[in-house]
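Example record

The entry below shows one chain as it appears in the dataset: sequence first, then structure tokens.
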Amino acid sequence: MKRLLIWLVAPLLFYQPRLADAQGNDVGIMGGASNYSGDLQPSNYTFFESHPAFSFMYWRELNGHVNLRTGISFGQISADDRYNPKLSTRIRNLSFHSNITEIQFGVEYHFINMYTHRFSPYIFAGLAIFHFNPTTVDTNGRRVALQPLSTEGEGLAAYPGQHPYNLIQVDIPLGGGLSYAATSNLTVGIEIGLRKTFTDYLDDASTIYVDKTALLAAKGPEAVELAFRTNELPGYQATPYPAAGTPRASSRYKDFYYFTQLSIAYRLPEGKNHSHITTATGLEGAERAVRCPPNAKKK
């Protein structure tokens, strides 16, 4: 039985074609889930409160191990204190939701040569620009953008050290996956990609409660209501607004978001560069291979 399994599986993983053309171009789509980790979601990795995410991707193959990659991704992130196991966090009662739009550029490294094998694990890293916009639902059921309200005193004259955060930021995509060349022109895979950001405001929570009077004067009653939401909970209606400087969140670590996606990529035609191949099994006459080593000669 073991020998039978080896004979069945080995051709899928170690099929070894050779072809004259090289450096292919692939386009594809990725789909799966997006999530985040931060002050309202302390777990480093979870599918709780995940949302649909998808990407449109382009890969430029440099050799059997290295691809350049670029793409645009769309996702959503959210969290709610009411799901936190800690009572002290639950009664904070903050929540947020944000759409994410990202453009990424990077390099992908395959540990197994994709010219000679169908299957390979890989890692990637790069640089990305993304847009986010944290919102929440107020007591009237309206969705409200949080950044203009300066809930932690960002941009207020009374808090010169609290600078407004930008909704367009840079991040570093890092991750890895598994890639499998299902046919000569079609590759499928699975990928987990973390985004190391340089902001602690994906969730609009980072530092302290600011002075209620200063916030009210600068941004109005809605900013005060959404900065402190404990008194919306049953049994806590009489809880007073915290004194200025009381911790609201922790700025010790920056927030990050991540995608967990399945991928499918299609090899673009190479024009006149198609040629016959000779495989490890001796079959001839196919027009495409799994990958195409740059120095292979026609058989």
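Notes for this example: Residues 137-162+209-246 form one domain. DSSP finds four helices and ten strands in the chain.
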